[in-house]
Every structure is written in C-alpha cells, then in structure tokens.
Specification:
The structure holds 3 protein chains of 3 kinds.
Chain A: E1 8-11, E2 14-17, H1 25-42, E3 46-50, H2 59-74, E4 79-82, H3 86-94, E5 103-105, H4 108-121
Helix pairs in contact in A: 1-2
Chain B: H1 3-14, H2 16-29, H3 38-58, H4 62-74, H5 82-103, H6 108-151, E1 156-159, E2 162-169, H7 173-190, E3 194-202, H8 207-223, E4 226-230, H9 234-242, E5 252-253, H10 256-267, H11 277-287
Parallel strand pairs in B: 2-3, 3-4, 4-5
Antiparallel strand pairs in B: 1-2
Chain C: E1 4-9, H1 12-28, H2 33-54, E2 57-65, E3 70-78, H3 86-90, H4 99-110, E4 113-119, E5 123-131
Antiparallel strand pairs in C: 1-2, 2-3, 3-5, 4-5
Helix pairs in contact in C: 1-2, 2-4
Classes of the chains: A alpha/beta, B alpha/beta, C alpha+beta.
Chain lengths: ~120, ~290, ~130
C-alpha cells in the first residue's frame, strides 16, 4: 500500500500532523495506520491533529478522526484536534456531528498547552 | 380598444386642464400642497394626470410604476410626504369618478360600462403606487437593520483570551444567525479561548433563537473555545426549561462577575489584593536613615 | 443554458472532484464561505453514499433561479439497492455509526430543499438545492 505522504512530525514529547490535502478513503486508512505506528515507535504522550488546511469535514472524516483518537487514547496518547475553521465548525454543529474522545484547540500553541496539562495530570 | 374606452380617454384628454385644476384646488384645501412651489404644483399635477391617462391608453402600468418609483426615491426632495402622495392619487381617482358620473348621468348602462373600464385601472394605479412606497421603505429599513446588526455584535476584550459578548434587546432568529457567523469568525481571527455571553439585556427568546445560541456554543467548542452564558433572567430561564432546551455541558453563571471569575480560574489566573498603602509607607519610613 | 455540469462517480477520488466543482459553481453565483462549506459538505455526504452503497452514480450540478434568488441544485442519482426505512434514516433514527443515516440527515440539515426518490428496483435519486 502506498504511503499517505502526509508528514507526521515529532515535537518533543508529542506528534504533530497537519494534512494539507483532502483525505479520501484509502489514504485515510493508510494515514491512520502510520500515525498509530509512529505513536508506538516514539512512545509520545500526545498527538496534535492540525486540520487548519482542511476546508470540508464530512461524517467520514469525523469517523476517521474519532478512530485515530480512540486508538491513540488506548495507547496513553491523548489527541487534540487543532485549527478547525469557523465554516467547518458551523457545518459540523448544524449536522449535529460531534467529535468524541478528542480535545479541541484553536491553534498548535494552545494544543501544546492542553497536552502539557494532560501530561502533568497523569504523572 | 373598445369605442367606449376610446371615448373615455378622449374625454379625459379634452378636459385635462379642468380636471387638473380641480385636483389642485382639492389638494390645497386638504393642505397637502403647502410645501410645494407653484412650479412644483404645475409639474406634479400634470404628471399625475398624464400617468392615469397613459395607463388607460397603453393598457400597461409601467408608467404608473415608474412614476411611483421616481416619487418614492425622491419623496424627500419633492416635499410631499408619502400619505400626501397617496392621498393625491385617491383624490384624482375620486375626481375622475365624479366627471364620469357627470358625463354619463343620463345613460345608466353606459355609466356602468364606463366604470367597468375605469375602476380597475384606477384601483391598480393606487395599489401600485402604495406598494412601491412600501417596498422602498422596506429596503431602507432592511439597510438600517443591517447597519444595526453590524454595530450590535460588540465583542469586548476583557483580558488575554477572555472576551465579553453583551447581547441586548430582542434576539430574533435573523439576528441570532448573524451572531453565529460573526462570533465564530472572530474566534478564528483572535484565537480567544473563552467568551462570556452575557444575556442580562435580553428580555425574551424563542426556540429558534435558543437553538442558534446552542449551535454557536457547540461550534465554538469544536474550534477550541468555551462560551459561557451569564445573566440569564428568570423569564429567559423559564422559557429555556419550558422549551426543554438541553443545556448540559454549558457553563452558566447568574452574574457577569461570576462569569469573569470562572474564566480567570480556568485560564489559571488569580486575583491578588495589592499590599495596603499604609504598610508601604511604613516600609519606606523604616528604610530612611535615622535622624539623630 | 450551459449551467449544467454532469459527473460520473465511480472512484472515491471522484468525491473530492465533484465537491470542488460544486464549490466552484456555488462561489461563482455568489455564495460565501459559510454556505460554500455547507454545500460542499452536503454534496460530499450524498456522493459518498452513492459510491458506498451503489458503487457509484451520476451527479448533476445546475444553477437555478426562483422568483427571488439564484441558487444551486445538485442531483445525485444511483442504481443501487435503494434506501429502506427512509423516514428513520432521515430523522436520525440511525444516529451512531451507520454512515447512511448520518450522511443523509446531516446533508438535509445543511441545504434549503431536499427530495429523495428511492426504491429497490431503480435505485435512488436525491435532489437538493440551496438559495442565495
């Protein structure tokens, strides 16, 4: 299977990934696996999923994000979804779609704040 | 065009001046032409009489519409109020009616036939003119409302990451919808973590509005911002409960002060009392070299 | 009028292409960012359903006009097994996990007009519109 080509970077104790392209079905599965693989490898204490470049989030993508977060949580790695645009936020709210099992933050800096807080609580 | 109609039009045209003068006198007696100059009166009376005749002639009301539109837009300049203008058309309608009665008083059949031709036209003209004014006014009101809306979503920054959104007046669902978009755009730009939505100035809300507010809070949460509500009045509280609005997960406080306390607490700020002035004076006295 | 765009959806990549086209057309008649996102998201849901449950389908994008405004119309047509329990699905009866329910009822909330014709033999046609 081809790689997703979405970079997953290490930021100290955390992972940061920021998709710049639309995530369609096969890529999504690959992407999810790559993230989880990297969490296992690096043993990081948090994942930041920055979606500021994504302009449409439908129920499929919500499910993908939730799956990533649930699996990451099981591995002791909380997930923060960062940078959701106002238009996407309204659309999801109007569709009554909720993002379960994730924190949400306005930007990457605030995501780090949340993850550090979580880390402290669990040590 | 029927002969009778043709005749009627000719009669209107032949008696144009007489009808026009009569109109002017009637309007002056009603006091509607006070603010107009003599020339203005000539112009308006000619225009209004011609309009009716043209509508009869051409069977189209474009003339009346165009005239009404030009009046509506310039009503202020023309120095006649809306009710005076509409009154003008009604007076004219009555006047034409009287003339018709005079000309056809000896033949009842023809009289009613002529009325059948004339009345619908007269009615439609008055309707069109009134409608044009209403539409013009609606547009002005709409523009003013938009301007007010722009002014009425004030977002006041209280501190780093804490913004106050005081809502005042009637929150109808149009305004509420505008609210969602402006608040969320603001959050996107300013990256504010907490918004205190104070509704002490809101007298009443309905289901749709409550729904919009909840949507705003939900969407803000997805972005990473918490919106708390303060200042819920008893009437509003009752409405929310009666409507069965689900407020779980939403922080509310009764006063703005409590809301601010919650926000500061969440952000990890603490308010400390500054050392008393008495003590600091003592302190500086102690530090002075002693006088011998 | 050449205001119609017709797409055949057969691969999942097509979902994104259709979505982008709809957004482009909607933007061209004056829709702003919030509505553009609503429309693109709704169409994404509908097209994905067609792909997932019927293997693909046809999408027609059209600019329309009513008495007062311009609008955009999107028709998603497939020859799949049809939607059973349409009422339940549309009213969020399947609220968690079942893609069809989420997508359909979600799309309905985002658009102004939403019509579904569906049966086991002919498949499903969904017509949806949003007005300026």
């Amino acid at each position: 299977m081809e790689k997703s080509t979405i970079p997953i970077l290490r930021l100290g104790n955390y992972l940061l990934t920021s998709p710049q392209i639309a995530i369609h079905d096969k890529i999504a599965v690959q992407y999810k696996d790559e993230i989880l693989q990297k969490i296992v490898e690096t043993k990081v204490k948090g994942l930041i999923l920055d979606i500021s470049a994504i302009d449409v989030v439908d129920s499929f993508l919500v499910r993908v994000i939730s799956e990533i977060a649930s699996s990451a949580n099981l591995m002791g790695c909380p997930t923060v979804v960062s940078g959701m645009s106002p238009a996407v936020a309204i659309t999801l709210a109007e569709m009554d779609l909720s993002l379960r099992g994730v924190f949400t933050a306005l930007d990457i800096e605030k995501s780090l704040k949340i993850l550090r807080g979580e880390e402290m609580r669990h040590t | 065009m029927s002969d009778l109609k043709q005749t009627l039009i000719s009669q209107f045209e032949e008696n144009f001046e007489e009808i026009r003068k009569q109109w002017v006198i009637t309007m002056q007696n009603l006091g509607h032409l006070k603010a107009l100059t003599h020339d203005d009166i000539e112009r308006q009376s000619k225009a209004i009489c011609t309009t009716v005749i043209n509508c009869l002639k051409t069977n189209s009301f474009k003339d009346a519409e165009a005239y009404a539109e030009s009046l509506a837009k310039k009503a202020v300049l023309e120095a006649m109020t809306v009710d005076q203008i509409i009154s003008g058309f009604l007076v004219l309608r009555d006047l034409y009616g009287r003339f018709i009665k005079k000309w056809y008083k000896d033949d009842f059949n023809q009289f009613f036939e002529v009325l059948d031709i004339y009345e619908p036209v007269a009615r439609k003209i008055v309707y069109l003119v009134s409608n044009t004014f209403i539409q013009e006014r609606d547009m002005v009101v709409k523009q003013q409302q938009e301007a007010i809306l722009k002014l009425s979503t004030p977002l006041v920054q209280l501190w780093e990451n804490v913004v106050l959104l005081p809502l005042i007046g009637v929150l109808d669902s149009v305004r509420a919808k505008q609210l969602i978009e402006s608040v969320l755009m603001y959050i996107g730009q300013s990256k504010t973590e907490i918004i205190i939505m104070d509704i002490a100035g809101i007298a009443a809300i309905d289901t749709k509005t409550a729904h919009h507010i909840l949507l705003t809070i939900q969407a803000a949460k997805l972005m990473g911002t918490e919106i708390i509500i303060t200042g819920i009045r008893p009437e509003v509280a009752t409405t929310l409960v009666t409507l069965g609005i689900n407020m779980t997960g939403i922080e509310t406080r009764s006063t703005l002060r409590d809301g601010v306390e919650y926000a500061f607490d969440k952000l990890g700020f603490k308010m400390l009392e500054a050392p008393k002035r008495q003590e600091s004076r003592e302190q500086s006295w102690k530090n002075q070299p002693s006088q011998s | 009028m050449s205001d119609s765009n017709i797409f055949i959806v057969s691969r999942e990549l097509d979902i994104i292409a259709v979505r982008e086209k709809v957004r482009e057309v909607a933007k061209s008649i004056g829709f702003k960012i919030m509505d553009l996102t609503r429309i693109a998201t709704a169409v994404s849901e509908l097209v994905r359903n067609a792909f997932q449950y019927a293997g693909g389908g046809k999408v027609i994008i059209k600019i329309v006009q009513n008495q007062y405004h311009k609008g955009i119309e999107v028709i998603v047509e497939d020859h799949g097994p049809g939607i059973t329990n349409l009422d339940l699905v549309l009213n969020g009866g399947y609220s968690t996990g079942k893609g069809l329910g989420l997508g359909l009822s979600g799309a309905k909330k985002l658009m102004d007009e939403f019509f579904i014709e569906t049966n086991q033999n002919n498949g499903t046609i969904i017509t949806t519109r949003k007005w300026l």
